[in-house]
């Protein structure tokens, strides 16, 4: 992670989530129910992370994806809040995205990337 990169400026709310590993409230984010076609990129560094074709409605109140763009998302163990989870981060800038869960059977891939809307930005597909 190189702090000298020319990253996008963040609002205090975005910084709380992306830098300090916070979480937005469920059903409050810009993209939890978004249905557009295109790419979701890291809000801090613009790295493409997810395709809209991998987004699904898990009912959890956060954007959910069952796959990522290869190499775009890093994982690390997270033992915060007395739980054992797998945190997901932008592989380019290290920004916190959310957590990944396996074994819930929401999709055939059996994976759910639970992502904060404040961590991503949607880029619509060109017509």
Structure description:
There is one protein chain. The protein has 127 residues and is mainly beta. 6% of the residues lie in helices and 33% in strands. It starts with 11 loop residues before the first helix and ends with a strand.
SSE inventory with pairings:
Blueprint: H1 12-18, E1 38-42, E2 48-51, E3 55-56, E4 64-65, E5 73-78, E6 85-90, E7 96-102, E8 111-115, E9 120-124
Largest sheet: 6 strands, antiparallel
Average of the residue pLDDT scores: 94
The number of E-state strands comes to 9
What gross morphology would you assign? globular
Poorly predicted regions are none
Q: What are the secondary-structure elements, in order, as H or E? A: HEEEEEEEEE
Portion in strands: 25-35%
- Total of DSSP H or I helical runs spanning 4+ residues: 1
Query: Could you estimate the helical fraction of the residues in percent?
Result: under 10%
**What class would the helix/strand composition place it in?**
mainly beta
The radius of gyration is: 14 Å
Sequence of strands across the biggest β-sheet: 3-4-8-7-6-5
Distance between the termini: 35 Å
